[in-house]
Structures are given as structure tokens and as C-alpha cells.
Design goal:
Strand content: under 5%
Shape: globular
Largest sheet: none
Number of helices: 13
């Protein structure tokens, strides 16, 4: 029962947000508020990282671990989905959407990294004693984040019936989950001092860096929280660069590599390169992955093996 408490803490605000209708005139405010909250969370995570003893000495280990984790996950995802696209091809009716630009999304990624670095620098040179424990502030912000994400999912206008009856979206979400777990298992087997449960938990972030960094920090400490953060940010960068390239021959692969971000952050790149016909798959896939990620992270991080 005790292991269910963290899961309930994650799911209750997410589901509560999904039950709250959002007026059309408030959707832009919701999206802006969510974006600023992500920047705030990354800033607070930077403050937490600044409190790690001998952080500079651990940066090399962190970067090597992130590189190994990212390589295992992306390789597994690409192998599974390129096979799937070849075995069950899907032909898109590409209608380009004006105004969607990958450069804007990439600039957004740099802003997020910048928020983290600002928090890290500020934590080293300024006093934030009035804030108390930054991690406690991050945990409170997490609840608000999940509530707003639930409201954002509701405001998308997509019903649960539409999501779960999109056959290719459901299959893609299942394949993505299996491929990610395979990558996490390989990572655990090749890395010393990484348990199978930790490898599986880290593999379940799916690009949702603001959430994965918090859950991994609570489960394994700030160093592993930062590893989860940079791994999921790396997925976002990778997706923005390779979505237009992969969309030409492997459209399902292109949609899937963004993981949880295919529902929001990488959706403009998906629509711009794949046309409007790629959007229903991205929304169905992204919705299921967004629901699955917090559940699996909490479950795996609570396992003893």
C-alpha cells in the first residue's frame, strides 16, 4: 500500500486536471502558464544541483552516463519502429502547415537548458535560504504541473474514445513502451552499479524531463535526477532534428522518437513535416505515453531489484 502513495500523488492531480473543462478563451493562458511553470521547475532543479557536493567532479560521470542511456534508448526505439514502418507501411497525405518552424522549437529547448543553467549559477553565487529546500518547492510545483497538464489534455478536444480507438496510435504507444524498456534493460546490464529497476525507471521518462527529473531525484538522488533530465532533453533535441528526415520514409518512427513531447513540444515539427494527417497519430500516441510515463517511473523506482 505504501508503494501506491507516490503513484496516487502523480495520478490524482493529472486525472483531476483532465476532468476540469477549460474555456476556449483561456487555453492560450493555460499553455503560457504551463510553459512558465516548466521554466520555474528547471530553475529550481538547477538550484538543487548547485547543492550537490563536488558537482564539477561528477559532471564527467554524469555526461558519460547520459550518453550511454540516451544511446541505448534511441537505438532501441529506432530499430523497433523502422522495422514496424517497413513491415506495416503508412502513407501520409502531406499538407504543409504554414507558420510551423523547427527553429522556434529548437530555440525553446535552448531556453529550457538556459533556465537550468541560470538556476545552477544562481545557486552557486546567491543565497536562497528564504526558499528553504528547493526540492520541496519542486515537489509542490510538480502537483501544479500535473494539474495543468491534465487540463491541457482535456483542452485538446480529443476524447478518450478517439485516443484509444486510433489503432496505429495504440500499437505505436505499446511498441514505444516495450522498446524503451528494452533500452533501459540494456543500459542496466552494461553499466556498473545500475540495477534493473533503476534502468527501467530511467527509461520510462519518455522525454518528459520536468517530471522524470523530479521522480528520479526523489528515488535515487539529485545526480540521477540530473541524468534523467539531460537524457530526456537530449531526446527532445534529437527529435526536433530528425523528425523531418525520418518522416519521408518512416513516419511512425518520426512521430515516436519525441516520446511524450509528440503531444505538445514536437507536435509543430510533426505537423510541418508530415502534414495534418500525422497529427491524429501524434496525439493518440502522445496521450497514451503521457499517461503511461509517470505510472511506470513510480512503479519501477519503487521495486527492490
Amino acid at each position: 500500500m505504501q508503494n501506491l502513495i507516490p503513484l496516487l500523488i502523480i495520478l490524482i492531480p493529472l486525472l483531476a486536471g483532465f476532468c476540469i473543462p477549460v474555456p476556449a478563451r483561456a487555453i492560450n493562458w493555460l499553455n503560457r502558464g504551463l510553459a512558465w511553470l516548466v521554466y520555474l521547475i528547471l530553475f529550481l532543479i538547477g538550484l538543487s544541483l548547485a547543492q550537490i557536493p563536488n558537482l564539477s567532479a561528477q559532471l564527467t560521470n554524469i555526461s558519460l552516463t547520459v550518453g550511454a542511456l540516451f544511446t541505448c534508448l534511441i537505438a532501441a526505439n529506432l530499430l523497433v519502429f523502422i522495422w514496424f514502418d517497413r513491415r506495416y507501411p503508412w502513407h501520409l497525405n502531406r499538407q504543409q502547415s504554414a507558420g510551423q518552424c523547427g527553429d522556434i522549437s529548437i530555440m525553446g529547448s535552448f531556453k529550457q537548458v538556459g533556465s537550468l543553467l541560470v538556476g545552477l549559477i544562481a545557486g552557486n553565487y546567491l543565497s536562497f535560504s528564504w526558499l528553504g529546500d528547493p526540492q520541496a518547492a519542486v515537489n509542490k510545483a510538480l502537483l501544479i504541473l500535473l494539474l495543468l497538464v491534465g487540463m491541457q489534455l482535456r483542452s485538446s478536444g480529443i476524447t478518450l474514445q478517439q485516443v484509444f480507438l486510433n489503432r496505429r496510435g495504440v500499437i505505436s504507444a505499446g511498441l514505444f513502451t516495450l522498446a524503451s524498456l528494452l533500452g533501459g534493460l540494456i543500459f542496466a546490464l552494461i553499466m556498473p552499479d545500475v540495477s534493473i529497476s533503476k534502468g527501467l525507471a530511467l527509461s520510462s521518462g519518455y522525454g518528459w524531463y520536468s517530471l522524470s527529473s523530479i521522480i528520479m531525484t526523489k528515488a535515487y538522488g539529485a545526480v540521477w535526477g540530473s541524468i534523467a533530465l539531460f537524457n530526456d532533453l537530449a531526446r527532445e533535441f534529437f527529435a526536433l532534428i530528425f523528425i523531418p528526415i525520418l518522416m519521408r520514409r518512416y513516419p511512425t518512427t518520426a512521430v515516436s522518437i519525441g516520446g511524450a513531447t509528440s503531444l505538445d513540444f514536437t507536435l509543430p515539427a510533426i505537423q510541418a513535416s508530415g502534414g495534418i494527417s500525422a497529427v491524429p497519430l501524434a496525439i493518440s500516441f502522445g496521450f497514451i505515453v503521457n499517461i503511461t510515463a509517470p505510472i511506470l517511473m513510480v512503479v519501477f523506482s519503487s521495486l527492490p531489484f
